[in-house]
Amino acid sequence: MFQGKDFVRLSCAFALGLAATGASADSPTLAKIKRTGSVALGYRESSIPFSYLDNSQKPVGFSLDLCAQVVDRIKADLKLDKLAVKLQPVDSSNRIPLIQNGTIDMECGATSSSPARLKQVSFTVAIFVSSARWLTKVSSGIHDVKGLDGKTVVVTQGSNATGFAFGIKAKGGTFNIVQGKDHAESMLTLQSGRAVAFMEDDILLASLKARTPDPAAYTFLPETYTLVPYGLMLPKDDVEFKALADDVLKGMMTSGAFTKLYAKWFESPIPPHDENLNFPMSEALKERVAHPSDSVDF
Question: How confident is the model over 144-199, as pLDDT tens digits?
Fold first, then answer.
């Protein structure tokens, strides 16, 4: 048993040890990153422009660029000479479990926050605000959601849009719903005529539309649904890790770096085909940039 001066010396040494670990002292995620010398990032393979594969199969995108800034901050705060970045592909069905079981430390994709998801994971301040909409072929002759009755529509498994579509059906819609395993498969279902409409967040539909051989062959139905914020997805209840990531994003929003990065990915030609989404920042996102928030309420 330690007594007197020995106890004081031990207490001081313990305190200095905590100070040396810095931000990792109370953060399970940062402690793991410091211990392993690596950080694991989840990315999507077809969520343009947030996270996707370019012509060389390299993951690129808006969310990955934001995550890179967070990684730089982690490396600096933990005083690491080197920090390996491990990239893990994820999809709509496994992204939350992979955060929960620690396979990935942060998801750099196009995931929307919601009260239900916040019971399982955490999100940074919003990096985008979207609204679910229907995309259909001009040749379908469908002009509004009523035109979907009696037909087959597609949504992506695990997406918030799945809940919206079933909610519309529950209120009197008579369409049949099929689910693609990812956005690429859902879009192919629409392109091939196996579904007359595809419901998803507007920006993701805009990006998928831009990649088709004839973007003008597709159009949005006029109905819009609940505004949803996107964030970088993080482990639940790791307050210190979230604070670090939020601080990075807030700093970028204040400095103008965030707006500049947005213009790069949403209003300029992007790989792999140099298409320009021509998707200016919405008023809802401008508000979140001016006043960063992780709230799901609008």
Answer: 999 999 999 999 998 889 999 999 999 999 999 999 999 999 999 999 999 999 99
Q: What are phi and psi of 66, to 5 degrees?
A: -65, -45
What one-character DSSP code corresponds to residue 63? H
End-to-end CA distance of the chain: 57
* DSSP 8-class letter at 282: P
Highest mean pLDDT among 7-11, 128-132, 242-246, 281-285: 242-246
* H or E element that contains 244: helix 239-255
Beta bridge pairs of residue 122: 234
| Residue 247 CB contacts under 8 Å (≥ 6 apart), including other chains | 73
Both tokens assigned to 18: 């905590």
CA distance 118 to 115: 5
Domains and CATH numbers, the chain: 23-127+231-290 (3.40.190.10), 131-226 (3.40.190.10)
Looking at the DSSP bridge assignments, the partners of residue 107 are 42, 233
Q: What whole-number distance in Å separates Cα of residue 86 and Cα of residue 139?
A: 44
The contacts of residue 22 (CB under 8 Å, 6+ apart) are: 77, 78, 79
- Are 192 and 215 contacting, i.e. CB atoms less than 8 angstroms apart? no
Which H or E run includes 60? strand 59-60
Q: Is the pLDDT of residue 16 over 90?
A: no
Q: How far apart are CA 173 and CA 160, in angstroms?
A: 18
